[in-house]
Structure prediction request, 264 residues.
Amino acid sequence: MGADILFSALLVGGVGLFVGIFLSIASKSFAVEVDEKEAAVLEALPGANCGACGYSGCGALAAAIAKGEAPANACVVGQAPVAEAIATIMGGETDPNAVRYVAFVHCTGDCERTQEKYEYSGSETSCSVISFAPGKGPKSCSYGCMGFGDCVKACEFGAISIEKGIARVDPEKCVDCKKCIKACPKHLISETPYEKAVAIGCSNKDRGKPVIDVCRIGCIACTKCVQSCPKEAIRMEGNIPVIDYEKCVKCGLCKKNCPRKCIV
Prediction:
């Protein structure tokens, strides 16, 4: 009986030793090589996994940065502090000329400047649904912000709120994730440089009296902003002024000479 116990003990011990040696060899043979830079970059990223950088998440972005396929400042959530940390890891420097962009809602026609054509009584309060209602919604200006907050729901950073019936972006909170741009059914939101002083606060594609009839501040396409810009930084696309921020020097003359005060 003692011999049986000894044999069993030796058998179990031998199997354990064999398994241990096998696992040790396998771990070395099938080991996945870890990129130290990739791991360090991933550690520096905020972990939001929002996809605003264009990658599926922070892990994918870290891999792309480590391979040199994405810049150090690709994370829009982390902004300058994260970009600087990643640049240090990668042994380079951040681009001093990098431009920070924020979202801007091209509509200033709030409830004090516009009216309602009718009272909306539907149960659905989504911009994407109400934009298909008669007249593209109850607001007098069919081009303007409806204020039902699809962009607010899309923003994960609390940078957008509804004030006086229209969406407003807090540039200090905005990380330029572009989710609000995709959420707006009327395409009223775009990126504008954080450091620039002016933006066109209207998206009405009509001209003259039809605009005046629906909004007290709407652009009437008078082109005075175009004429007053000393750098030719403003052009008309249809009946809407468009600012070329590469040329804009923040002189403010367009805002000063706008008779409708829709440049903000």
Observations:
- The mean pLDDT is 87.
- Residues 36-89 form a domain with the 3-methyladenine DNA Glycosylase II; Chain A, domain 3 fold (CATH 1.10.15.40).
- The chain has ten helices and six strands.
- The beta strands are 101-105, 160-163, 166-169, 189-193, 234-237, 240-243.
